[in-house]
Amino acid sequence: MPAPFFARFTVSGITLRRRHLFHLLFDQRTRSARRVEAFCGLMALLSVIVVFFESALMTRHAPAPPHPGLWLGIEIAFTLFFTLEYLLRLVLSPKPARYAFSFWGILDLATLLPLYVYWLWPEIAVSYLFIWRAMRAVRALRILKLLRFMPSLRLVGEAVSNARHQLILFYAFIAIVMVVAGALMYGIEGGENGFDSLGASVYWAVVTVTTVGYGDLTPHTAAGRVVASLLILIGYSVIAIPTGILSSQMTENLQRRRQARRCIHCRTADHKLDAIYCHHCGAALPRLKR
Amino acid sequence: MPAPFFARFTVSGITLRRRHLFHLLFDQRTRSARRVEAFCGLMALLSVIVVFFESALMTRHAPAPPHPGLWLGIEIAFTLFFTLEYLLRLVLSPKPARYAFSFWGILDLATLLPLYVYWLWPEIAVSYLFIWRAMRAVRALRILKLLRFMPSLRLVGEAVSNARHQLILFYAFIAIVMVVAGALMYGIEGGENGFDSLGASVYWAVVTVTTVGYGDLTPHTAAGRVVASLLILIGYSVIAIPTGILSSQMTENLQRRRQARRCIHCRTADHKLDAIYCHHCGAALPRLKR
Amino acid sequence: MPAPFFARFTVSGITLRRRHLFHLLFDQRTRSARRVEAFCGLMALLSVIVVFFESALMTRHAPAPPHPGLWLGIEIAFTLFFTLEYLLRLVLSPKPARYAFSFWGILDLATLLPLYVYWLWPEIAVSYLFIWRAMRAVRALRILKLLRFMPSLRLVGEAVSNARHQLILFYAFIAIVMVVAGALMYGIEGGENGFDSLGASVYWAVVTVTTVGYGDLTPHTAAGRVVASLLILIGYSVIAIPTGILSSQMTENLQRRRQARRCIHCRTADHKLDAIYCHHCGAALPRLKR
Amino acid sequence: MPAPFFARFTVSGITLRRRHLFHLLFDQRTRSARRVEAFCGLMALLSVIVVFFESALMTRHAPAPPHPGLWLGIEIAFTLFFTLEYLLRLVLSPKPARYAFSFWGILDLATLLPLYVYWLWPEIAVSYLFIWRAMRAVRALRILKLLRFMPSLRLVGEAVSNARHQLILFYAFIAIVMVVAGALMYGIEGGENGFDSLGASVYWAVVTVTTVGYGDLTPHTAAGRVVASLLILIGYSVIAIPTGILSSQMTENLQRRRQARRCIHCRTADHKLDAIYCHHCGAALPRLKR
């Protein structure tokens, strides 16, 4: 942690304290900051759980849940907490503008909005209760922040990054297949079977190729069923390709990492990933970076 | 089997016989105990098959199956058998309390409950016939016990255990995606299309991301269909990740085991997994632990 | 082909000719027999295509297709061909009884039945037209015979055979999960939502775990939706296991075969699977058995 | 680029200029031609997006979108562009006949048709508006042309090509299973449950085995549900096979390419795919062909 050392030479004492607090609270390299992050994630999780309970209590006959004051109070408490956190982050950050316009900064800001929307335009929160509540549930995205620092993300991320050209190729191919199949079904089935716009037909193609198959739009003519069967078989075949690509990249990565672990005494490589001692000379192996 | 040897020195003859019986009946390292286990599993299977037949005989017009006495009799016989087995296990076990509160102990106890519920509160078994019968079918869980000892579980288990960090990361990510997508659909589609609570919306997201796609809840607005298509494509993409993770771990494990088989004469490694003789000097290879 | 040589020493000339004909027509090691097999497969394919056209011509308003005589004539011609083939196989086979009771023998016999059923009990073919026609379409199974001799079957077959213990374990686990989930839903949802027998509930579990998701049976209660979501997530997770098992076994097999190709001059191994010359000394490599 | 050099020696100046233009515009080895190709792909994409907007503006109450003249004008502009491109390709190509009857030539021609159909038979474009619009959306296929030159296609293509025998075997097997299952359901369920022709039954089998599961055709009898469950379990099992085949082939290819990268100084092989220097002697490695 070289930052306090550097901060010692700054002119103003306020800056010194600011930096100190930043490292204590938000610098992911310190243990205390990771705990703060985990606590904020927990609060986001709790606030989402509360919205779920509130929504579940609302029935068809009673459009508003009982005890509206209680739920509003909880919402205010959460918003206060998140506002405090946002302001602290903004004030303490060494580059506030960069934080404010980063993905995580915008997400943190969006977390606060629901209550302020409710205060400024209460008619929105009443008429569009569903949208207002949905805004609050989107807070779950904040938990993604915690996943950023899991070390196992690296292995998956590396495989995806190595295979990116092939994956882009694959998705471009699938997208074209979906558009063409949607267009064919639009021409064959027409409006009376639900395929009333090209968009709806492509929605059908997405639902079909990915093997979801809701069944809200289905072919009713013989020709439509033949085209649908062909599309399904194409989708069924190509689903193996991204899996194959990722499997081979991950196998490759695992082998590479195993062979990269070389005993510093006898130079033997190819140790098991969780080995602690060299299988040839018994010396301690360098630790594996997960 | 050091236990009979150790038992010889115990003070009481009853303890000696108890230990002997325990090893004979329930210690998985003896062949007789494995046979007892297989027989108990068979009884559980039979009792489940009986419940299935009983339920199939019940039609919409006749809520109770014919010959109710016959079915009750069979149920009593099975319960007697399982009660006897449970008592024996409890009495003979060297640590009865540990057994009683272990997962398998609680499961064995749960197996007995349906009949005793029927005797104590017969009105439950009549009014909640479906629940009472479901309790009896849950006995199928006991067959899981038999799978514990299959040696091939180790290879799968090892791969899952090595990849646990990545799998946890994956499921956390999927869970967040599901909650956010459910919230968005709740806001967009609203109550009139079936998305009447956040819970129902997340149920829809689970059914969609996993490509099950029942079609009981489907988007009806254009915006909802766009969000659904995006969610489906995300689900379709990430389904390749756990498969890739497990495939690479299992490939790694298989190679490791192959290279670990080294001829004790000429030190050549890398034999085929089912090889019996060294491919270099012809000496017999050590047996492979499956 | 040692058989004609051996046949030369048999006593009767009929046996000699019989053996000769058998090798010519049905012994898969001769080229002419493989052509006969392919021709019989083609006839089976044609007969299936005819049944499909016949069934497609039948509309809701006209339960019988036009020109019934034409379709019956074609059916008689196919049956005559298959009868002749069956009798020839039976007569020429060195072990007629073994052929008659083998899987393929019974299948060949079943191929003939529809017409004879029509002649003996014409009322069946009229009242149960659907079943009668289905019997004729099952002839498609005969084409499986042709796949038996494709050499690439070996690689897939070897991987499945090596992984059989793990696959059995996997299917046993999935079966237990399905029974338990079906029982839970039977207890929770009850008869009014379509879960009116344990069999129907297990059918629902099969449709759900495998991500087919017809939507004919769906949970309607909140508790049922929670159980369904959990079951779906379990199914989604375990679907990666058999793929991982087969991928790792096939990767292992491919590597083994590559390393098994050793140059007979310089003993260098590890050649590309489609290499023709040794990459180290340039000598011709032994041919790869596909 | 030896072509301009060769063109210098041709007799006619027109041929010289023609060749020059061909290389400049359509020879994929020059950078300018690749840009022309990308621009044409972009125009195809734009024309498809326009058709989607046009179709989305059409509602159930207003069968024609507003401003029909605007949409027709845009269509004329696109058709003029594609006509110009087609004529240029045809005139400049060294082998015009070969281009005209190649897959891409026919596709380029099909791109032009919708407007000429509209001019020659306007009644078609009005009565069969859906089909006419579908023809325009099929232009998306032209974007496939751009994917041809992506280098990562090679790795996927090589794996598919190496595994072609196994994949053919797999699809033949799946096709037979689908026909037999369709026939069984046709016989068991019969016409009253929607299985009113063998074609419809096979459509059901395709939708089921591939785990799409629309739910428009579902089994209603107990026997039908048993057959459907078995078919679903077969489909669920074999879905792992093509994934396993492709994964193993791709793993094999990746390893081969890694081992093929040998340092030209010290002959060490087995470098990481994105390594730039030899990990043993530090010399620059030959570049990897992606």
Automatic annotation (TrEMBL), chains A, B, C, D:
Pfam families with a match to the protein in the record: Ion_trans
Subcellular location: Membrane
Topological relation to the membrane, as annotated: Multi-pass membrane protein
Superkingdom, taxonomy of origin: Bacteria
Keyword Transmembrane helix in record: yes
Residue ranges of the TM segments: 38-58, 70-88, 100-119, 168-188, 226-248
Span of domain Ion transport: 36-252
Protein name: Ion transporter
Species whose genome carries this gene: Siccibacter colletis
Lineage: Bacteria, Pseudomonadati, Pseudomonadota, Gammaproteobacteria, Enterobacterales
